[in-house]
Design a protein that fits this description.
Number of domains: 3
Number of strands: 30
Shape: globular
Largest sheet: 8 strands, parallel, barrel
Number of helices: 8
Structural class: alpha/beta
Strand order of the largest sheet: 23-24-25-26-27-28-29-30
CATH topology of the largest domain: TIM Barrel
CATH superfamily of the largest domain: Glycosidases
Helix content: 10-25%
Radius of gyration: 25 Å
Length: about 600
């Protein structure tokens, strides 16, 4: 699905702002027909949960409704008119006046509706969008809904971040020509010093297509006819980590001398490859430094905010990070575009977090339900997971910043049924995009001896907390255990390994001269211990600290005001560990550091 953009043949209007807001009733997903009669208003984009002081709204399980009046520009007569919702967490319904025009499941990818036959240029219509936050065993991410003795519905889920809901990203009204470009797929390669851009253009009707490529100065450097083709760029300037260079692909549909449609898209020429235990970008070994992140800020929840976007990337540049993982869902397209423009490398992840009932019953307890079964995560769950992969890759396939797809975070890969669940999904990912490596982030009870799916993937992602959830406060034991485990993974698979999560909860301002957990000194020592081990393991190709910033979680006695593993606070102030990471990462850049095998 192409992102809406303004060109010579396309126009768009932002529908962001204040919308009328209402909470659904016990009728569940019944449509809200007619105008709202209440006084509540909600900001778009933003999660609704923290906007209001009424706990009944924050804790509501089910549908909420947004509504506003929209005027279609009078110059759009003869054009196709569409409404696009960048995200509705976790399911959405769109009504033009009282007519249902679109439905979608999946909270982090866009969907749209063609409303040309419902509205008219120059007229107003009532736009109503319903959003449901319900999670079940067949949604991605999964969850369960329970009813308390007093009749309250409660949402339970297995991911450790708050289940923010609402219209967290932009809503658009836009126009396109009747005959238009509906999709573009680009794959880049390098032949000596010549860049190669293979393209496929999809149109809504048979048409005459011309494709051209312009450099950063706006000069045309290559062109070709047809819906499929290959452009060659002598003396190409590559898209590099930290040194982004973007060309512009211009796709036009012609009828003689008349341009019926035009779409412009940035293109970065680069290659990605796994070779042995190395991860290569443009043929050079690349070492990931950075974070798992979250779309999470005060009041807005998961609402996209361009000010935070700029500031977060500034902090990543300050600290020397070259990459991040979109844990644990696809991020806003504005984030991906920014990464493209600024040379930040991205591991792009689906919302498949919480596929793990092994830890639901508590560590060490025996009353665990199987994760993969007809009653739990089943064929319907896998179908939803497959659709999430399709939509993620369809949306992000042309971003040069995206170098790897992450299929899932911390699934129960040690249980019976895991391979049967994941093998078709990995095969689908490769079918949809054979050009990028595929990974997953494994949970701490998976070992080389009991993990059932590691061999399916190109790169091993390990979420490990030696020194926090295991050997807490004993970094000497944690260091020995971590090195033994990483050595075993490397020996078992001979693949690149990235530490996709490692971190320790830290209260800002808490200090001690001893190794006491929760202090800033312990977080720093914890990370330094991991780095010593990473530098001794040849197969290690990266380190992503958990987390970039503190973030909101669900209620729990082990969480005080959320997860505190950030090296920045929730309002983006650095903890002591941020300065240590800055010294390390700015020194090593994108080159793997080396250290003696024996401990100093």
């Amino acid at each position: 699905m192409l992102k809406p953009t303004a060109t010579a043949t396309r126009e768009l209007v932002s529908l962001d702002g204040l919308w009328r807001f209402a909470v659904g009733t016990a009728a569940g997903d019944q449509p809200w027909l007619g105008p709202f009669d209440g006084t509540l208003e909600a900001a778009v984009p933003a999660s609704y949960n923290d906007l209001f002081v009424d706990p009944a709204i924050r804790d509501h399980v089910g549908w909420v409704w947004y509504q506003r009046t929209v005027r279609v520009p009078r110059g759009w007569a003869g054009e196709r008119i569409l409404v696009r919702v960048d995200a509705a967490t976790h399911a959405g319904k769109v009504y033009a006046d009282d007519r249902l025009v679109a439905e979608h499941s999946g909270g982090y990818t866009p969907f749209e509706a063609d409303i040309t036959d419902v509205v008219a240029a120059g007229d107003e219509f009532r736009l109503t969008i319903g959003v449901s936050n319900e999670l079940t065993n067949t949604t991605i991410p999964p969850g369960t809904i329970t009813v308390t003795p007093d009749g309250r519905r409660q949402q339970k889920y297995l991911h450790d971040f708050y289940n923010y809901s609402g219209l967290a990203r932009s809503v658009w009204l836009y126009s396109v020509p009747p005959v238009r470009v509906s999709d573009i797929a680009v794959v880049t390669d390098v032949d000596g010093r010549t860049g190669v851009i293979d393209y496929t253009v999809t149109t809504t009707a048979p048409a005459s297509v011309r494709v051209s490529l312009r450099d950063a100065a706006g000069d045309e450097v290559a062109a070709g006819p047809g819906e499929r083709g290959s452009l060659r760029v002598p003396q190409v300037t590559l898209w590099q980590p930290g040194r982004a260079y973007l060309y512009e692909l211009v796709v036009e549909i012609h009828d003689g001398d008349t341009v019926l449609d035009q779409y412009r898209m940035p293109v970065g020429v680069r290659t990605v490859e796994v070779r042995g235990t190395q991860f290569l970008i443009n043929g050079q070994p690349f070492y990931f430094t950075g974070f798992g992140k979250h779309e999470d800020t005060a009041v807005r929840g998961k609402g996209h905010d361009n000010a935070y976007l700029v500031h977060d990337f500034q902090l990543m540049d300050w600290i020397g990070a070259n990459s991040f993982r979109t844990s644990h869902y696809p991020y806003a397209e504005e984030v991906m575009d920014f990464a493209d423009r600024h040379g930040i490398v991205v591991i792009d992840e689906t919302a498949a977090v919480g596929l793990n009932l092994f830890i639901e019953g508590g560590i060490g307890r025996g009353d665990k339900r199987p994760t993969f079964s007809p009653e739990t995560m089943n064929d319907e769950t896998r179908n939803a997971h497959a659709q999430a992969l399709r939509e993620l890759i369809a949306r992000d396939k042309n971003h040069p910043s995206v170098v790897m797809w992450c299929v899932s975070n911390e699934p129960s890969s040690i249980e019976e049924g895991a391979r049967e669940y994941f093998a078709p999904l990995v095969a689908l990912t490769r079918e949809l995009d054979p050009t990028r490596p595929v990974t997953y982030a494994s949970f701490m009870f998976a070992t080389p001896g009991n993990d059932r799916i590691a061999d399916l993937f190109d790169v091993l992602g390990l979420n490990r907390y030696h020194g926090w959830y295991m050997a807490n406060g004993d970094l000497a034991t944690a260091e020995a255990d971590l090195e033994a485990e990483l050595t075993a993974w490397a020996a078992a698979h001979g693949k690149p390994i990235i530490m996709s999560e490692y971190g320790a909860d830290t209260m800002p301002g808490l200090h001690s001269v001893w190794d006491i957990p929760w202090t800033e000194e312990y977080q720093t020592a914890f990370l330094e211990m991991h780095h010593r081990v990473f530098d001794r393991i040849e197969a290690m190709v990266g380190e992503h600290v958990w987390n970039f910033a503190d973030f909101r979680t669900s209620n729990g006695i082990h969480r005080v005001d959320g997860n505190k593993k950030g090296v920045f606070t929730r309002d983006r102030l650095p903890k002591a560990a941020a300065h240590m990471l800055r010294r390390r990462w700015r020194q090593i850049g994108s080159t793997k550091p080396q250290a003696p095998r024996s401990r100093a």
